[in-house]
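About this split. The held-out portion is used to measure sequence recovery: a designer receives only the structure tokens and must propose an amino acid at every position. Recovery is the fraction of positions where the proposal matches the reference. Here is one held-out target exactly as it appears in the evaluation file.
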């Protein structure tokens, strides 16, 4: 008895959510996410999974993902960044976390480290300039 071969997924054929489809192989261009798929994609975006990776996870082209969930993924990414920024700000201002304060001032306050410049003479002696 011959073994049954699996057929290759068609571009518009539904794939099973969570079934990883290699890039360019069997990705769907037509896709309507279920409420569960929608929530999974939003959660994935909120924790930093890239759009390309989300598309691979659901087996859909980036265009289909953008068309169906683009605005929701945008909001999830912004909310995640805001939450981390809020935590950093709280630690810098209320938590006595010097590292968080320094990072915040460098990233948002324009602070930067400047190299020390030694203007002394040979052996650390002062340089005298007479005019």
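Reference sequence for scoring:
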């Amino acid at each position: 008895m011959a073994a049954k071969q699996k057929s290759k997924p068609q571009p518009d054929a539904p794939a099973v959510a969570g079934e990883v489809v290699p890039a360019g192989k069997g990705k769907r261009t037509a896709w309507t996410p279920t409420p569960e798929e929608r929530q999974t994609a939003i959660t994935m975006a909120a924790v930093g999974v890239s759009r390309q990776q989300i598309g691979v996870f659901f087996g859909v082209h980036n265009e289909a993902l953008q068309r169906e969930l683009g605005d929701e993924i945008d909001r999830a990414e912004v909310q995640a960044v805001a939450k981390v920024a809020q935590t950093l700000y709280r630690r810098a201002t209320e938590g006595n976390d010097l590292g968080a304060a320094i990072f915040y001032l460098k990233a948002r306050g324009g602070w930067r480290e400047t190299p020390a410049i030694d203007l002394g003479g040979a052996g650390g002696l002062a340089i005298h300039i007479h005019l």
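Annotator remark: The radius of gyration is 27 Å.
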